[in-house]
Write a structure and sequence with these properties.
345 residues, 14 helices, 13 strands, globular, homotetramer
Chain lengths: 345, 345, 345, 345
């Protein structure tokens, strides 16, 4: 049975943190208002505002990452604007054209281990501005980042501050995709905290689906009413949950007693343990990814052999004989599975 | 506290049927493939195919009704086509322009207690076809129905067969929104069964959100591959769940041991009891709605007084002094709350 | 040969006013900048600003009416807003879903001989605002009128002022489609002048295609920069002419020596002559349309007989035995053809 | 006065070929049916079918290139598909996001002097097909080429045949943008004839705007009814001309007595003369562009000095001190202006 194999294929393979299930059961027969107007969602919003030190923030709970990206990009851009993203960005590659479906071009820039550079963003905007044909071209209208990136890497606070600064100098909003944010926050190398995101970004989302919830992403817009009628935009995108309280309860739980911060720790500890074991055994890591995703370069034969025993994700072929495989840990990774994996190496 | 008031405001105020919560807890630590490729979703699809007697059907699990409608309408129409719907249809009024966001006009027809008539559909298509300017007009490209309708009414099998027949004669697909389908299936007056839907519709969805699930709708397309790449279309709409198994587990549970059929019974029994009590006491029902929604005509003063004690939904004002209020029961309605409500009348 | 038949089928059957052809020939070998940055377009803009008494107005030249409507509606609305129009409005019926293609719902209101009423608009906006579910509904975001209307009727200055007032009270823009504006301006019953349009509307277009040009509509936005980057929006819609000067030359000519005002006179004189003849002979006019379109009620047999000799437009059947036919005159209608038509009656 | 300067800035600076103006004047008072149903358009279609040896072809006349591209790409793709284009392709860079406005991603591939390579296209499609995540990605759905390219270069018949072959093997349509097609057809190095385009492409357009018409592009679809309801799609895009006959007359003229073939000759002769003079004088051409566009590498000072006397187009900076300027000839370029330009070198 596929599900019983030792699997490190992704971080969205289990249900929810037990505390979330407990709260869902506990509140199951209470009657709540629909569409996020319930008291759990209200409480979750307050907790998120507090932890982000963004007392005026608008907070919405959506179902998934592609949806949240599409809604927010559509909400922030005018029709003739595009969104700047790394060429490896999730919106550039793996969202099936959801951004274009909303009418917008993704303006791709080079990536450095999954990250954008402030200087490249500045050059992109300047190039557009100085082009005699700029009125025939898509105007750069916002910047999309992810933290951690698709490559498991992290922006430093310094890097993020520089990018934010370029955005503000050019009056274009900065939006950050935090699908795996818990794994950044738990990482010792990370120096970007939630209040930093609230201070530096115009919008960002705190990932739930990959970080301990059954589903759900918390979209945070530090400046109240930056986007008027966002509720309606969410509805128009088919992204408004009738039972919004199911998401509200989950985020209320994640932000009670610091669960969102501790939940990532398990994943990082497991990933660090695996990274150390890989390096001890002479495996080569594709790049320095310090979060819950490990990218290991394997000979194809070796990859095939290991894949018999451990489910990993294929990332890409680097040459005729080598391939990069991704090992992902999560909040639910069990120490015994980590040891079994290491024993296979 | 708002949530503690006696509430019959809607049918999406509680969590999930306890059996669903039990199964979510039971499977919580199992590792499942993402995006609906897991074994629970597979099993749920098989169960739905069996109960619909549609062995070749494509089945997808989405999050909510507006989303499912937008995805399927977008998938079935070409850019220059519109969707025929009742002027009271959910897509016509209460989806914030989600259909137009996808580029399509909603072609509204008169409604009769929420229902479309086959003859009106035929006339609409014929009128377009015979219009000398038809190539300058939106072509009717599909029909949207809901069962039960927004008004709580039901199509008879005869009516649905006639509509299906008009659609097939004109080679336009018929799509049915079953957000509250459990409440139709449990209603003694209903003679439209799941195999009838599979035989008469080109696509329909079996509602979960309002019928006992935490969230989720099961989109059923009886003819395999009617829409190629529907998975990608769903992704592009931001409607693909990473943890598809969370929806799969819920629908597998709803279609085990006939739960989806029994779950509606509680709501119908409660609604019948309330309808009888209302009529005994001389209240006037706005129209004959035999499912879980009751539409009662009240004097405005009376409505205000009752609303102090019972949360209902405002539907519409019929004249200066009267208003229609909606009382909704659900799978979770408790007999003691029904008796308390009746005592208030 | 179809083209040689006595034809009153429409007002876009001939080429351009001879003075326009003369100017196109005269300037043919001059080199002009592209995309409307040429001196003819500049001069045409100045002339239009002067005649509209709107010295700050932005003026763009587009190719056709549907295109201009789609561009401007898309430019003025946010994604979640719709445009209010008469149910007979061109955008509601005869633009093949161009407005929905841009993502917007057309919110139709009743028409009175093709016209909207201020009170209906106010009620529509108020109804939305007072609806508890308004955030799930399409927000009325602008108003679309045509003058003359599709029915050949005219708004009085009083009516237009009232509508403008409702729009301003509700902070929603008013846009006016002037496809046949020359025929309003030349009509004795018309009391709406170009400066009135500039004062009362947020945007409007002065029709060229049906009023003496080979093609072209002049979009006028009295308040400068009301829509930033409109040039790019026009380009994105595929509506930017590379040889913008070809449109510029035409509008410069139309607004030199009052040509646009005299050009409509021929059509109105012809239409008045035909209307008088019809009434003398006992024909019934469908409604009081004082511009270049005449709507006459005919028995179907009579309509068929007349159609043998005169090409008219079918408008609609009023009952089993009667039909409304449209007779359209234009700037190019010849007196001898009017007399031949009258002789046929 | 800007217009009097010696200008080689572009090929859309003059009006129309005198024969076109003559025919417009000659037919000006004839009454024609609207929307392309007139006899001139019919005749033009027949002439184009004949010269393309495509007797069943659908032919439509649109206003401009961006519009034609947007319409045809939208017509050929399903929502989840994208269009493959060179990274320098007009749709990739200079159409203000018109393709994304229609909901589609432009999938860019490397360019070689403006051209795509068959092997790159094949690899792009194969890569998508073999990607485990392909259902989360935009499917390559068609190929966009231009001939001549934006860089003034030409596909050989061999190259075009290879690309067509890749497209047919993969069942994705091939579309060719012929904005400057007359300048390819008149070029001695060109071996791609109109019947080749009809045989190898699924759709292409014959450019009028830059090739002697006031405006207009002739969209040719060799296989009849490849796109059902294309008329309506054109209307929905705001691209349907009410006075379609104005375009029809122009294309009828361009395809009478071989005008479209001779019209390009003037431009090519002038460009060849300038290229020879440049090379004699030691100027460096940026690449080998044999059509009506000449790309010359200049020192920035030299470029500035020359620009005082000759209007050219800025193309791009190649390094700190050099720039590429474009010199464009057209059907209207006068020999004396060529000599004046050469004298300035």
């Amino acid at each position: 049975m596929k599900e019983s194999k030792l699997s490190f294929a992704s971080d969205y393979m289990e249900g929810a943190h037990p505390e979330i299930l407990r709260r869902l059961a506990e509140t199951n027969t209470c009657k709540s208002a629909g569409y996020g107007l319930d008291m759990y969602s209200k409480s979750a919003r307050e907790k998120i505002r507090a932890v982000c030190r963004a007392p005026e923030a608008d907070v919405f709970f959506l179902t998934g990452g592609t949806q949240t990206n599409a809604v927010m990009i559509d909400a922030l851009l005018r029709s003739y604007q595009g969104v700047i993203a790394a060429e490896t960005g999730h919106i550039s590659v793996h969202e099936a054209g959801a951004i274009e479906f909303g009418g917008h071009k993704v303006l791709t820039l080079p990536q450095y281990e999954g990250k954008l550079r402030a200087a490249d963003i500045a050059r992109c905007v300047d190039t557009w501005r100085e082009d005699a044909n700029r009125d025939h071209m898509v105007m750069p209208g916002m910047v999309y980042l992810s933290h951690p990136t698709e490559c498991g890497t992290l922006y430093s606070l310094q890097e993020l501050t520089e990018i934010s600064s370029v955005c503000r100098d050019n009056q274009i909003p900065l939006y950050l995709d935090g699908a795996r944010l818990a794994y950044a926050l738990a990482c010792p190398k990370n120096d970007v905290k939630l209040p930093d995101l609230a201070a530096l970004c115009d919008a960002f989302y705190i990932g739930g689906t990959k970080c301990g919830a059954l589903f759900g992403e918390a979209l945070v817009i530090p400046r109240h009413n930056l986007v008027p009628q966002l509720f309606t935009i969410i509805k128009q995108h088919g992204a408004l949950l009738a039972k919004g309280f199911v998401a509200g309860i989950q985020f209320e739980t994640l932000f009670t007693d610091g669960l969102y911060f501790s939940i990532g720790q398990t994943a990082i500890d497991a990933a660090d343990r695996i990274r150390a074991a890989l390096q001890e055994r002479g495996y080569r890591l594709a790049w320095d990814a310090p979060t819950n995703q490990i990218f290991v370069v394997l000979e194809k034969k070796q990859a095939a052999a290991l894949s018999e025993r451990i489910e990993m994700s294929f990332w890409e072929n680097t040459d005729e004989t080598h391939t990069i495989m991704r090992i992902a840990t999560s909040w639910a990774t069990r120490p015994e599975d980590v040891e079994r994996l290491i024993a296979c190496l």
